[in-house]
Design goal:
Elements lengths: L12 H9 L11 H7 L9 H25 L5 H30 L7 H14 L4 H13 L28 H22 L25 H25 L1 H27 L6 E2 L6 H6 L3 E2 L4 H4 L7 H6 L5 H15 L5 E2 L3 H11 L2 E3 L9 E5 L3
Parallel strand pairs: 2-3
Antiparallel strand pairs: 1-5, 4-5
Helix pairs in contact: 2-13, 3-4, 4-5, 4-9, 5-8, 7-9, 8-9
Length: about 375
């Protein structure tokens, strides 16, 4: 994995090493968001309702095909092959679920179509089917895009300053501790974020995405948080009825295990797009929207780029222009790369290697040693 995707990756090993290891500039860019927009052909901003629904239909068809194969043929296999078949089904179906989540994510940004009500309807139905609170995450995620990489105000992937590290972080830099941290994060990361605001902004009180009166939301958004909760309750009831009819083991094999794989990929993708030794975090004395937005990293997942609708290969662009649909994002990224220059970060390291490396190197953030208190923080791992 990590090669053969849709991105125009650096062509030489020296360029790859430069992109992977060299810190990006932290000075004010010599271009504006308006300059970047002018570099993108206007038709890349156009959203096609028909084309977007095609991808919904394609993903749902794949889900149906894999479901049919699993329920029709797996019981005919010898037990040893049956176990392997189920493991394959969980991974493959989980990847397709992740693609559907990406479409829901685009709905939340109004990148699915030019009709916000259509986007919200599609996103709410599909997100609820994946046991995710659509409107709750839509609003909290908008806070992330408004404050990307701000130490004080970013909503998620908030980096920890060394002086604020908890006692257990000293074990994170050891292989066993790192492995346990990875397993826990990949399996529990998304539900912990929704329920306990894990890795989210510190509001100095208990924060839950299911609570309409959580400080994340304003008065205009509370009703929609209630609606998200109703969607989850309805889905849970349907799953309960299915478990009564088909059995809990059947439900776990068909639905729950692919859902866990999906949650793992969501954590993996978003973590790797926002954690890298080459990208900084800023405090309030230095942060501005453009520099914070540019401090993200594009990644290559090989054949999974298409399955994930190029979510990871065009993440920098997505933070700059959230309404550009995924089917235009790769070409739009190519259009802005010459202008961004060193402000564009790409790492083609295979994602499984990058996950281990970034978990090792990106434990906390700290300023460089020196006389200048410039409000720029970099990832470090020495405890």
């Amino acid at each position: 994995m990590g090669v053969g995707g849709n991105m125009s990756v650096p062509s030489t090993k020296s360029e790859q090493n430069k992109n992977r290891l060299q810190r990006m500039p932290t000075s004010k860019p010599p271009f504006t968001i308006g300059d970047i927009k002018k570099a993108i052909p206007p038709h890349f901003f156009q959203r096609s309702l028909i084309r977007s629904f095609y991808y919904v239909a394609r993903d749902l068809l794949l889900v149906s095909v894999f479901y049919y194969i699993a329920t029709t043929y797996f019981h005919l296999l010898p037990s040893s092959y049956c176990y392997l078949a189920w493991l394959t089904y969980w991974i493959v179906q989980g990847c397709v679920f992740t693609g559907i989540w990406v479409i829901c994510h685009e709905c939340g940004h109004n990148a699915f179509s030019s009709y916000p009500r259509v986007d919200d309807t599609v996103g709410f139905i599909l997100h609820s089917a994946l046991l995710m609170p659509y409107f709750s995450l839509k609003y909290s995620h908008s806070r992330h895009h408004s404050n990307t990489n701000s130490l004080e105000h970013d909503q998620i992937h908030v980096a920890t300053i060394k002086s604020e590290l908890e006692w257990f972080y000293k074990y994170s830099n050891k292989p066993l501790g790192r492995l346990l941290q990875l397993v826990a994060t990949l399996t529990l990361g998304t539900p912990f974020y929704w329920t306990f605001n894990f890795t989210g902004k510190n509001y100095y009180r208990f924060v839950c995405h299911f609570d309409p009166y959580a400080p994340i939301y304003n008065d205009c958004e509370r009703l929609w948080v209630y609606i998200s909760d109703v969607g989850l309750i309805a889905t849970t009831y349907v799953l309960y009825r299915v478990a009564l009819t088909q059995g809990l083991a059947w439900l776990v094999c068909i639905y729950v295990m692919p859902l866990l794989i999906m949650n793992g990929f969501i954590v993996l993708m978003t973590f790797l797009n926002h954690h890298h030794p080459s990208v900084p975090r800023y405090d309030s004395s230095e942060w501005d929207w453009l520099r914070g937005t540019l401090a993200t990293v594009d990644r290559d997942y090989g054949v999974l780029n298409k399955v994930f609708h190029n979510f990871t290969t065009s993440h920098v662009l997505h933070h700059l222009f959230t309404t550009i649909p995924h089917y235009n994002a790769v070409e739009a990224t190519k259009a802005i790369k010459p202008l961004l220059g060193e402000y564009y970060q790409f790492d083609g390291t295979p994602f499984y290697k990058a996950l281990w490396r970034e978990t090792t190197e990106c434990i906390y953030v700290e300023k460089d040693e020196g006389p200048h208190d410039n409000g720029v923080f970099w990832f470090r791992n020495k405890l």
